[in-house]
Amino acid sequence: TLAASMAGTFMIIHINMYFDPYTEEIGQLIKQHTVPEDKIIVWGMIWGDPFLRSDRQGVTGSITRSLPLTDTSLIDDPARLQRLKQLGYRKIILINPSPFIVALTSVTGKRGEAILDLHQYLPAVARSWPVVFDSSQMIIVQIPD
Is 93 exposed, middle or buried (0-12, 13-18, 19+ CB in 10 A)? Predict the structure, then answer.
């Protein structure tokens, strides 16, 4: 049982890494809709993926957990938002999980991931900000000066 579990886990990880183009697509979209000097705030993806694939700097949750779409404390506080602007943060990006991962978690019965309407998760303070890019995969919003 242990060997079968390990083999299954190994297979899932490698299938995701090598055959799911989603993280590469997200990285390319971020590259297309930002400039290299843009620092970005990402909700919905873990630490490395959006930054390594788009060659951008920024902040998100942690190495193992994404910044939850419901945690808007990073920009809700005017002082924190002002500090982010001073540090050069110019864009907020909300990202849906990979459809492959959503399907995979549905099949395994975990239902840990779901495709969401990202507009509902856009922080209240950012709803009037200019939208740079909008799709079912992600939304990019410009932080005003």
Answer: buried
Gap between the Cα atoms of 108 and 28, Å rounded: 29
- 32-41, pLDDT tens digit by residue? 999 999 999 8
Q: Is the pLDDT of residue 133 over 80?
A: yes
* Collapsed DSSP state (helix, strand, coil) of residue 51: helix
Checking DSSP bridges between strand 39-43 and strand 89-95, what pairing results, if any? parallel
46-56 per-residue burial string, b: 16 or more CB within 10 A, e: under 16: bbebbbebbeb
> Tokens 């506080």 map to which residue?
77
**Both structure tokens of 40:** 């970005």
Distance of CA 52 to the CA centre of its chain: 12
Bin 24: left if φ > 0, else alpha if -120 < ψ < 50, else beta. alpha
Name the residue with tokens 């779901």: 114
